[in-house]
Amino acid sequence: MDSATRQNRVRPAAPSSPARPSLAEAAYAALKASILEGLLPPGHEAVEQAIADQLGMSRTPVHEAVLRLQHEGMVRILPRRGVMVLPIDPEDLRQTYQVLIALEGEAAALLAARGSAAADTLAAMQEATAAMEAALAAGDRGAWAAADDRFHRALLAGCGNPKLARLAATAADQAQRARAATAARRGEPETSGIEHEAIMAALAAADPDAARTALARHRARASADILRALGR
């Protein structure tokens, strides 16, 4: 199998379980992960039946998954041609980051206000930041981007407002896709680790305003770097 074929394969679907009760959910998770990780790059086209064959399921759950991903702005259904992974549009991404900064900033403030109840979340964020630094030292930009995403997902999951976390999830997906797509084209991202430390310091100090400000500063700087990389 050549490298192009390997790249454009969908990652295997996880088996059905109580946590993932339907084939449509399994297909959605596998397709989204493949898009976010760049296994299905922007502009890639595939027919639904071919995706279904790779996942070992019928076309119906794949179609349901594709409809959901189209609603989230990751793919477009092409009549009589299949499905295409959408390019990352810089203006759309700029607007996405504006939404994400507002939502994540509020999540950071909420998390800071939780005081000692935020300890487990803060530990997960510290683990993710340490993993980022290890990946950077190893020259593994893919692992670095994945660990960076874990940092932000942990913040959202631990903020104490599940509805806010759900609203932010789609924007976070788009940010992760852009981060992974541009990781190899950006300069050494040591600044992210420093900014993560500032966010965590504000959380440890139980200072909501400082946490919101540190998060907004970090996302604004990172989004500017990503947008510049997209323009190259």
Describe this structure in words.
This protein has 232 residues and is mostly helical. The protein has 2 domains: 3-85, Arc Repressor Mutant, subunit A, CATH 1.10.10; 90-230, Up-down Bundle (Four Helix Bundle (Hemerythrin (Met), subunit A)). It is built from 10 helices and 3 strands; from the N terminus they run ααβααββαααααα. It has a 3-stranded antiparallel β-sheet with strand order 1-3-2. A hairpin with a 3-residue loop joins β2 and β3. α9 runs antiparallel to α10. The longest helix is centred in the middle third of the chain and has 24 residues, at 90-113. The protein starts with a helix and ends with a helix. The model is unreliable at 1-6 (pLDDT under 50).
Supply the key terms.
single chain; 232 residues; mainly alpha; Arc Repressor Mutant, subunit A; Four Helix Bundle (Hemerythrin (Met), subunit A); three-stranded antiparallel sheet; 10 helices; 3 strands; globular
Task: Set out the fold topology.
Elements: H1 3-7, H2 23-36, E1 45-46, H3 48-55, H4 59-71, E2 75-78, E3 82-85, H5 90-113, H6 119-138, H7 141-157, H8 162-182, H9 190-204, H10 208-230
Helix pairs in contact: 2-4, 3-4, 5-8, 5-9, 5-10, 6-7, 6-9, 7-8, 8-10, 9-10
Our count of helices gives: 10
User: What kind of sheet is the major sheet?
Assistant: 3 strands, antiparallel
Query: Which homologous superfamily in CATH is the superfamily of the largest domain?
Result: GntR ligand-binding domain-like
N-to-C terminal Cα separation, in Å?
Answer: 31 Å
Radius of gyration, CA atoms, in whole angstroms: 18 Å
Strand order of the largest sheet: 1-3-2
- Proportion in helices: 55-70%
The second-level CATH architecture of the largest domain is Up-down Bundle
Low-confidence stretches: 1-6
Order of helices and strands: HHEHHEEHHHHHH
Rounded average pLDDT = 89
